[in-house]
Amino acid sequence: MLSELSEWFWQERLWFPEGLGWADLEDRDGRVYAKARDLWVALPIALVFLIIRQIFERTVATPLASLLGVKETVRLKVPHNPTLESYYCNITKNPTQSSIASLCKQTGHSERQVQRWFRRRRNQDRPSLLKKFREASWRFTFYLLAFIAGLAALIDKPWLYDLKEMWQGFPVLTLLPSQYWYYMIELGFYGSLLFSVASDVKRKDFKEQIVHHVATILLISFSWCVNYIRAGTLIMLVHDSSDYLLESAKMFNYAGWRNACNYIFIVFAAIFIVTRLVIFPFWIIYCTWVYPVTIYEPFFGYYFFNGLLMILQCLHIFWAVLIIRIAVRFLTNNEKVDDERSDKDETDESEEEEEEKVEDKKDIKKNGPVLNGHTVHNNNHSKTE
């Protein structure tokens, strides 16, 4: 059964133009070609990345965060309340007014105490600035090094300057060592991102990020199997060209360096728009969608490859709308840059904490100090009373 499925899946008419097939990619005369089995190397590389990341965050990112003034956030723990905890975990983190009234009857607490409990419980679950900084610094380091390595690997290649060269001699394109490692490292890194997604900070565009990672892994894997390697290296280079700027802007944002964050974000927005909305669709996709049909008849692999590119382009447009909205708001009103793609609930956190501080001050003036959502009455009278 499995052998029949494998035979059907790898049939040549699906993945190659008519008259070409897997036999054309057999090593001969000292020429080496990409093979599907090579992709297994990406799995141990992904695991190595997970280990390196843990070491990096502890030995590099944490001292860097301290140097830039990013400190571990100490959040107050809410008093244990089985009723409220069960509602928070199983129903919703943001109860309605009618639900709050019902919870007040069940717990015997006032409406304000229940609201404060949920607010502090939400804050308790939010990732600290240090965790966000560590993740951003890890991604910044990889994207920057990947962009430099990719540029070094492609700087002397003719298809970097004339995109039609990517199909010269296709599919009999010799695999270079630089291309091999560029592919395996990129694939391993995106695999590690997919493995760690459950423990990473949840972002507003969490679902879009999952789609992006899966589409990227499929795109890299497929382009490797059918020797679309020249096109694949160009696509990876374009994507790496702006991502490190976004991560550096986040790092400065978490460190409180507002001006540096704002201006780096504007540079990132400009590069993102040029690379993702101009170069990627009008140069690269043009040379993978329009130009190849002048050489050979379309086939399933041709549609599959370009379909993945269109998924990425749709994500680019989605993110570009958010980025342009932020950039226009900053340039026209000189408002601070808050990345709408950033961590989930991050923009609400400061508002809730500020609201909580205001309420605490009111309670202190009225009833005395507040501890973990409960008023601590001060029965000691001052000497002047």
UniProtKB/TrEMBL annotation:
GO biological-process terms attached to the record: cellular response to ceramide; ceramide biosynthetic process
Major subcellular location class: endoplasmic reticulum
Keyword field contains Cytoplasm: no
Keywords from the UniProt entry: DNA-binding, Endoplasmic reticulum, Homeobox, Lipid biosynthesis, Lipid metabolism, Membrane, Nucleus, Transferase, Transmembrane, Transmembrane helix
Pfam families (UniProt xref): Homeodomain, TRAM_LAG1_CLN8
Homeobox domain location: 84-128
CC annotations in GO: endoplasmic reticulum membrane; nucleus
DNA-binding region range list: 86-129
Pathway note: Lipid metabolism; sphingolipid metabolism; Sphingolipid metabolism
Catalysed conversion reaction: sphinganine + octadecanoyl-CoA = N-(octadecanoyl)-sphinganine + CoA + H(+)
Gene Ontology MF term list: DNA binding; sphingosine N-acyltransferase activity
Record's compositionally biased regions (Polar residues): 375-385
Subcellular location: Endoplasmic reticulum membrane; Nucleus
Acidic residues biased stretches: 345-357
Stretches for region Disordered: 337-385
Top-rank taxon, per record: Eukaryota
Protein name: Ceramide synthase 2
Annotated source species: Lates calcarifer
Taxonomic placement: Eukaryota, Metazoa, Chordata, Craniata, Vertebrata
